[in-house]
Design goal:
six-stranded parallel sheet, 18 strands, alpha/beta, Rossmann fold, eight-stranded parallel β-barrel, TIM Barrel, 16% strand, 44% helix
Amino acid sequence: MNNQVEAILFDMGGTLRRTVKRAREEKHAIIQKMIHQLDSNVAVEEFTTLLSQRAKAYKAWAEETHIELNESELWTKWMLPDFPAEKVSGMAVQLNQLYRESIGIRTPLPESREVILELFRRGYRLGLVSNTTSSVEVPALLKELEITGCFETVILSAVIGKRKPNPNILLEATQRMGIAPEHCAYIGDRVDRDVAAARKAGFSNAIILRDPNKPAADKRDEADLAPDYVIDNLRELLGIYPPRLSPQPEPASVYDASLSTMWAIKTFPQLTDFFEFARRAGFARIELNHKITSAMLDGIDLDAFQFSSVHEPCPADVSVDQLKQRDWLISSTNEENRCQGVQAIQRSIDLATRLHASTVVIHAGHANADKALEKKLRALHASGQRESEEYQKIKAQMIQIRADTAKPAFDAVVKSISELIAYAEPLGVSLGIENRYHYMEFPNPDELDILLSLAASDRIGFLYDVGHAETLDQLGFYPHEEWLKRFSPRMIGTHLHDVRGTTDHYAPGLGTVNFDMVASYLPQSAFRTCEFQTFNSPEEVKSGLRFLAEHGCIKFKN
């Protein structure tokens, strides 16, 4: 019967985790924090009773209507309608989390992580659909367990506005995953909600995890609500769903692009799981970023994967932060430190050679390590004060400091890059000089011109980082398009991501970058790397990839 199951969707509460009620004293201590945040003098006991009554009333309404409100609506309309709505709305997420914490301690079942990972590795597509008043709790738990990337979609009632047993919440998940309901199974703990929703949605299987601390669920004797299986431990799923004999899930399209391991950190427990996600998502290659250590690579058959590039210092056995603290940078004016910086990049060149990767991405150090002024500038920008006198004063001060301090450090960069070109050339590895996120970092456009003149285009090129160019444009330093107009012919590769304000590494389509403009300058030969931070969901990663294809920044792989 399970041969047709391709996707397994999970409930959260009662299924992947359980809740234990807090002691009265603990609950009151947390409620007191809420009272303090609200700047109220209401008595703890009175406020606790009030919130409990209102929560019960809301729950009854939600169960009757199959509607879930978001945190703002819940707390302004039901929980605290007698407080100023604007004030409550602004802190609704935090208030909701405090209240949920006051009710009980939520702990994942010890086998949840292992079972999810094993089902993912067996080739099943996974999703999560849960009734919850919190929009943030589930994503935080998945991140804590390092299994975020296993779930193609996460549907929360507080976000979507529907709740089980309404089958539409499950059908929303299947639509997002692009899979027919009859190829899906749902794992929950409530017959009246979970089995009922799965049956109405047309799922192939509905499985109930029995809680030994609770009596048997009601309505189990009704034939149409009888679960296909009743289990006492999630590990029993591994006997129900064996490794898939058919080919592992294949992407609908394969894109001529790489996914940076930036998104792997804390998203998966092992790099091989990340590599599998990238394959399923449609990425043809991988870029190893500067968080990957030798230990992470140990035991992996790296010949089984394709790599476009290595971002130094990878392997990061000496981390980026340590290199900066020790001044082991290729811009260091201390010769011994500069040599240590060169050696770190040489190790990356060696790894690229081993992986048959064409390019090593290089950060060229900085003119000045102090970021205090830039932090002030970014804070002013975030508060809408870019045109203020204070902003312009700080910006002018930064420009002057860079001009006064850059030359000795940039001379060290030129020397270092010359040595690295000589090291990389016989190994057939090219160097990609990346434009940077911080103003004091090398290179600016004129400095890049000098560095690119050190060797031919097959030995050194421009690694165009879209988000960095956009951010420094937002801050008022270099026009984004200047990098493209001047250096498109020397572009060796790209880092593609979006920007909100001055924060980058969002999936494309979530920010303000003009990717149509970007696409018009990208040479066909330049490799494309999607460099996304882990705050992007798996759905956003895939959507960003499609967005780039729709806007001409990447193409399908031949």
